[in-house]
Design brief:
alpha+beta, D-amino Acid Aminotransferase, Chain A, domain 1, Dna Ligase, domain 1, five-stranded parallel sheet, 17 helices, binds adenosine-5'-diphosphate
Length: about 625
């Protein structure tokens, strides 16, 4: 059968991505949405949309029955799960098929086989796929686990068997810290996955994350679409991905892609999947130093880089295979052309511990130079309920260097306001000399985080740019609102007039054009100027006019909840002495953890945060008073 109508059980950019291909293939699309997503882009783009419940995902996108009922009501023949939410939920896959609908994904049995890390690894060992050395046993007695870690040799990694998304992992460097790490890993695993069992692995030094895109069909064929490198990670979450992997030689490629096909065959795989490997890159990539980590039984966030180098549309492959067709191409018909890079643009503020940033996208300009996969447009809102990813920027080139140049260019021209983004951070990472040299591993970002996080204070040239824009606006009255349609003022010539402007409480008299011009764009409206430069956004005001968005801990020591969320840890007690930068409270919001730190040395004068409590945006959590 050919699928003629499709419900997409997801939201945001992946829902829009699936809709795009469905539309091209003439497939009718049905979106689902929560309260918060009533006006979302995926709803606007679908042929039809069905409301499925409240804003929290557990009231809508995670409720399988509501989604199946929506598909029935809208007369959709098939369900595409996207990624996240119910995409790797075997019970949901079964429920979809039991309702007489087509499931665009692998069989429930394949999802289950790969669902738990320990069982999956045992299966892979039996299938002859190389697996990281470690302990996968049933015996969870702490003494036994410790003995196993001792015999593997430190450092080791403790991993929750039910873990995912980078959670439930602890690196242990010495035997002495094993028990503490084990306890903390088990606590996190129980809280996050409802299962505190762990496995132990040899910790791979200089690890690189290499993964292979695979596809199987219902006729027993399996192919791979080469590898991706996802070593650039922050807190075990992918940030920049590329295909192919830098420094990959033919022998290693054959070994890792061959192992991926073996893994897929071992679980009778149908549809799109990704087999993740960890490589020990301490002596470059080598065929005998790549081990199976896990298999993700869905389409991945980073699938576009594979599409760009193979010229294939992976969502089209998924739909054709789900409709019963054989794989569109044989292995020998697939090849790599050029290089592709993807950067994940997040609504977060790198200068403030990468705290998510929510609100309306008053200004949202990502440029047209590269492929942009997004689920939002200017004027849409970033809500606190879901993942903070706002777009994926995908650049390609004939060579790796060309792809990097295009990605850096694009990132440096990102203009988003007032929602904060990581564009400046991503640009620095992609432009780093070691990254350009292909010298990557998973410690790349953590080891140079200070250099990659841009200074939130405007550079010299941006002050000049802002001053010039302000002066120009005085003489060019009647401009449109810069927040809606940024006309822009580019600094290109020297001027010789001074103007007083403020940013984040600091005021300066600046000569417009007094400094060498800096790449950027600025627009003035009334008493404020908005400047964009190298992916960063800066708001200036006239002195004394107030305003000027700065954000961050209040100068008076009051720490407010920056968004709705849940308090997961309180590290201090009332009356405690604290040092500047000390972690006080940890919040969980938008699927991430965020720590609030003391703004200066002092004493905890007020403590309103309680572990486990839900908090609203702007609620007082802690107040620190300046100490001697
Ligand atoms: P999750 O399912 O939570 O994503 P993974 O098992 O896929 O967890 O691992 C996530 C990341 O953790 C990997 O990309 C890699 O950076 C790191 N990692 C995993 N296993 C090891 C290991 N044995 N040694 C070193 N780093 C590891």
């Amino acid at each position: 059968m050919t699928i003629k109508s499709l419900l997409i059980a997801n939201r945001g950019e992946i829902a829009c991505r699936v809709i795009r291909t469905a539309r091209r293939l003439g497939v009718r699309t049905v979106a689902v949405y929560s309260d918060a997503d009533r006006h979302a882009l995926h709803v606007r783009e679908a042929d039809e949309a069905v409301h499925i419940g409240g804003s929290p995902a557990r009231e809508s996108y995670l409720v399988g029955e509501k989604i199946v009922a929506a598909a029935k009501a809208a007369g959709a023949e098939a369900i595409h799960p996207g990624y996240g939410f119910l995409s790797e939920n075997a019970d949901f896959a079964e429920a979809v098929e039991a309702a007489g609908l087509v499931w665009v994904g692998p069989r429930a049995s394949s999802i289950r086989a790969m669902g738990l890390k320990d069982a999956a690894k045992k299966l892979m060992m039996a299938a002859g796929v190389p697996v990281t050395p470690g302990y996968l046993g049933e015996d969870q007695d702490p003494a036994r686990l410790r003995a196993e870690a001792d015999s593997i040799g430190y450092p080791v990694l403790i991993k929750a068997v039910a873990g995912g998304g980078g959670k439930g992992m602890r690196r242990v460097n010495h035997a002495a810290e094993f028990q503490d790490m084990l306890a903390s890993c088990k606590r996190e695993a129980a809280a996050s996955f409802g299962d505190d069992r762990v496995l132990i692995e040899k910790y791979i030094e200089r690890p690189r994350h290499i993964e292979v895109q695979v596809f199987g069909d219902s006729h027993g064929n399996v192919v791979h679409l080469f590898e991706r490198d996802c070593s650039l990670q922050r807190r075990h979450q992918k940030v920049i991905e590329e295909a192919p992997a830098p420094g990959m030689d033919e022998a290693t490629r054959a070994a890792v892609c061959g192992a991926a096909v073996k893994a897929a065959r071992a679980v009778d795989y149908v549809g799109a999947g990704t087999v993740e490997f960890i490589a020990d890159a301490s002596a470059g990539l080598r065929p005998d130093r790549v081990w199976f980590m896990e298999m993700n039984t869905r389409l991945q966030v980073e699938h576009p880089v594979t599409e760009e180098i193979t010229g294939q549309d992976l969502v089209e492959w998924q739909l054709r295979i789900a409709g019963g067709e054989a794989l569109p191409l044989r292995q020998e018909e697939l090849s790599i052309r050029g290089w592709a890079m993807e950067a994940r643009l997040y609504a977060e503020d790198p200068a403030h511990e990468f705290l998510p940033s929510t609100g309306r996208l008053d200004h949202f300009e990502l440029g047209r130079a590269v492929r942009v996969d997004t689920g939002v447009e200017e004027g849409d809102r970033i809500s606190p309920y879901y993942d903070p990813m706002i777009a994926k920027l995908i650049a390609r080139g004939a060579t790796r260097e060309e792809a990097i140049d295009r990605l850096v260019d694009t990132l440096e021209q990102v203009e988003v306001w007032p929602v904060r983004t990581n564009a400046g951070f991503l640009a620095r990472a992609a432009d780093d000399a070691d990254f350009r040299a292909g010298d990557v591993d998973t410690a790349f970002i953590p080891s140079r985080i200070d250099r990659l996080v841009p200074d939130p204070a405007p550079p010299e040239g941006v002050w000049n740019l802002a001053a010039a824009a302000l002066l120009a606006s005085d003489f060019g009255a009647g401009q449109e609102s810069p927040w809606d349609a940024l006309q822009g003022f580019r600094l290109n010539g020297p001027a010789d007039r001074g103007v007083a402007i403020s940013h984040g409480g600091a005021t300066r008299v600046v000569e417009a054009g007094g400094d060498p011009p800096l790449e950027g764009i600025a627009t003035a409206q009334g008493e404020s100027v908005l400047a964009f430069s190298r992916g960063q956004a800066f708001a200036f005001t006239l002195p004394g006019s107030g305003g000027g968005a700065s954000g961050g801990a209040a100068a008076d020591g009051t720490l407010l909840s920056p968004m709705p969320g849940r308090v997961i840890a309180v590290e201090v007690r009332q009356g405690d002495k604290v040092a500047k930068g000390q972690k006080l409270v940890t919040l969980e919001a938008m699927k991430m953890e965020h720590s609030l730190a003391a703004p200066f040395d002092g004493i905890v004068a007020e403590l309103a945060a309680e572990a486990g409590a839900q908090v609203q945006e702007g609620m007082l959590l802690v107040r620190v008073e300046k100490g001697e």
